[in-house]
Design a protein that fits this description.
The radius of gyration is 20 Å and the shape is globular. It starts with a strand and ends with a strand. The protein folds into 2 domains: about 210 residues, Sandwich (Jelly Rolls), CATH 2.60.120.260; about 80 residues, Immunoglobulin-like, CATH 2.60.40. By secondary structure, the chain is mainly β. Helices cover about 0% and strands about 45% of the residues. The chain contains no helices and 21 strands. The N terminus is likely disordered. A hairpin with an 8-residue loop joins strand 4 and strand 5. The relative contact order is 0.20.
Length: about 300
């Protein structure tokens, strides 16, 4: 099980998230090759065990069933990055969907990011719409404004880029639900969707800002990187014993990894200027991440 303590701004975020570094990742799924599964890869402690599912129908109803998913195909960043993939969408308009659930305690001003692709050799579903559901079994599913998605055989057409969640989703101690609902029975070529049609989902992030008056854990309780901004020569201070250090650039590419950390002084003066994400894993499998600016 992944153990994620707190996140300032997590690695492997897509380029379009450059503008939200002042916010926190509430929960996210990036399906890295080292941990390609349904469990969240980043997020606040409350959401460390949240998972992605693929379903048909309404839970508890006779027609309900789970659609099998796999995490073996290449994701939006290409090999070795992975994504979630599922078939079985034929004739399932308004019934089949991808779904995540999460808590937003202490956070507001929430936005959603995701990427979808529909298989080329096995043309997948073209049309989706994003909906949200507040806690409670009787709460209805509501369409998100601007949540219409048209997929293609690429990772650029089916992008959700900073879709705002309503304020009713703020500071919820019970689970909020988001789903990507199949909106038609057509594939990406405009033909009838077959049972072999492939839908892929990747880079799901829910971002939010701390809510005024509510105590939110400070990432610097666990990790600090200084000086920051830096010329590439910086020091890492960590409360626990570091077992792995990874550094990612702004598009999510791992530019450095060290699993044999000796000391905490780090020299990356050969790095290009820009924003990086420093990720530390302790021997207890805790994961801490902080932004680093190289000038």
């Amino acid at each position: 099980m992944k153990k994620i303590i707190t996140i300032f701004c997590m690695a492997v975020m897509p380029l379009f998230m450059n503008s939200v570094f002042a916010q926190d990742t509430i929960v996210g799924w990036s399906f890295p090759s080292t941990s390609a599964d349904s469990i969240a890869d980043v997020g606040i402690t409350l959401n460390a065990t949240r998972y992605l599912s693929c379903q048909y129908g309404t839970y508890g109803k006779p027609s309900y069933y789970s659609i099998p998913s796999n995490y073996t195909t290449n994701g939006s960043l290409g090999s070795p990055d992975k994504c979630a993939q599922a078939t079985g969408w034929a004739g399932a308009a308004d019934s089949a969907y991808w779904m995540v659930k999460f808590k937003t305690t202490g956070y507001g001003t929430l936005t959603l990011f995701s990427k979808q692709q529909a298989g080329g050799s096995n043309p997948g579903p073209r049309d989706f719409k994003v909906q949200y559901k507040l806690p409670g079994s009787t709460s209805p599913w509501i369409d998100l404004t601007g949540g219409t998605i048209t997929c293609a055989n690429n990772w650029t057409s089916g992008v959700v880029n900073g879709l705002s969640l309503p304020s009713t989703c703020d500071n919820q101690s019970s689970q909020i639900s988001i789903r990507w609902l199949l909106a038609s029975n057509l594939d990406i070529n405009g033909n009838a969707l077959l049972s072999t049609g492939i839908s892929k989902l990747d880079d799901i992030y829910i971002i939010g800002s701390p809510t005024s008056g509510i105590s939110v854990p400070d990432v610097e309780t666990y990790i600090s990187v200084f000086p920051n901004p830096s010329n590439g020569n910086f020091t890492i201070k960590n409360n626990g014993e570091i077992s792995k250090l990874s550094i990612y650039d702004i598009v999510g590419k791992c530019v450095y990894v060290n699993e044999n950390i000796i000391g905490s002084k780090t020299d990356f003066s050969n790095f290009e200027k820009g924003v990086y994400l420093v990720q530390i894993t302790t021997k207890d499998s805790d994961v801490f991440t902080q932004k680093l600016i190289v000038e």
